[in-house]
Amino acid sequence: MAHVRQQIRDAIVTALTGLTTTGSSVFRSRIYPIEAARLPGLCVYTMTEASEIETISRPRLSSRDLTVAVEAYVSGVNNYDNTLDTISVEVEQALAADPSLGGLAKDLKIAAFEAEFAGEGEQPVAVGRITVAVEYAVAENNVETAA
Q1: How confident is the model at residue 32, as a pLDDT?
Q2: What CATH number has the domain bearing residue 24?
Q3: Which of 34, 41, 82, 145 is buried most, with the most CB atoms less than 10 Å from its CB?
Q4: Collapsing DSSP states into helix, strand and coil, what is residue 35?
């Protein structure tokens, strides 16, 4: 089994695979650039996580606030904003369909959106980052099972 954080990230990838605009171009990392042939595409990765102890007796319950980035990559010469917004609609609706991610999370919400545009390459690339806030809990002695 894996850390609940990884299970959440994997559940988000699964929920976002097969969307109309990005299809199967969903990746679990941002380390390697997406090939132009795979665009538009999504990258899903963990940004930050904060933890707070909720109980006194051991094993203590740890409440976690996880921030996950869903980055949408689009290339072309026009309509960046419209395509990023279309992808954003698809992502937000897919995640809203199961905000508990199959019981892994207490709650999930869209926390922010930001866009960047780069025109240095062969074709300009637009990136829209959807920041997803996920609340979950685990026992300190079992971080592979959501509590």
Answers
A1: 64
A2: 3.30.70.1700
A3: 41
A4: coil
For residues 108 and 99, the answer to whether their CB atoms sit within 8 Å is: yes
How many domains, in total, are found in the chain?
1
Structure tokens at 139: 């026992």
Expressed in angstroms, the distance from the first to the final Cα of the chain is 15
Three-state DSSP at 140 gives coil
3-state SS class at 88: helix
Q: Residue 35: what pLDDT? A: 76
- Chunked mean pLDDT (size 10), the chain, 147 residues: 96 98 90 76 96 95 98 86 96 98 98 87 84 98 97
For residue 100, what are the contacts with CB-CB under 8 A and spacing of at least 6?
106, 107, 108
Pairing mode of beta strands 41-53, 26-27: parallel
